[in-house]
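ok trying this again, last paste got cut off
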Amino acid sequence: MKKRIIALTALMLALLCVLSIVGCEPKRDPNTLRVGASITPHAEILEVCKPIMAEKGFTLEIIEYTDYVQPNKNVEDGELDANYFQHKPYMDNFNEENKTHLVSVAAVHYEPFGLYPGKTKAIKSLKDGATIAIPNDGTNEARALMLLEQEGLIKLKADVGFTATVLDIAENPKKLDIKEVEAAQLARSLADVDMAVINGNYAIQAGLNVAKDAIAIESQDSSAAVTYANILCVKEGMENDAAVLALIECLTSEEVKTFINDTYAGSVVPMF
């Protein structure tokens, strides 16, 4: 009996210790907002918001990421309060595949996709069997294929829309080798392929300007402009957080619009 009492007492003490530790965990500072962002242009745009947020009584912490996965995981697990790097179709696809609970709270800007020359400098010079690199992640792959279709290089199956993959190519008269590559590696691949369709932020990061360097550009009046607007993302339940609302106001301010237009010369287009 004594042994049971001792064991029970030890268990209760252990539970009390655990509860004590949990109770002592630091809580989120409501006046500090931790936001994950791609280096370019997202983190640069957020830097413009720092003094504006400070005037509103909030500290904006910007954590830079070079991939499209970790910033979503970190919003879901609470390490970040928000992120700014993706468009809604990518977020929706991420939620579906990872059972996460991410939501969009603002559409901020649009980055036109561009087709950039590698070993071949003009579309008319593409030979049969030429290699074109495109992003390998779901929604961006579809967007890249739609740009190739826009330029008459391929034809996609009817009504496939933003779910298109290379398997949905109905016609490929030049028998182009469409090579799926991780988005972050596309600019580096240019030396090895004839052309590449590159995401806006990675093109900027590589020193490419879609208005000057691309040989074909996604139409700015296309459905992609609205569909693929880059968003501020939070975990469900944070939509009306005071710091989040303050950041939305900052990101859609005239100061930010002017910065985007003056800095990126058409590579980034405000959506407000």
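PB: full thing came through this time. The mean pLDDT is 90.
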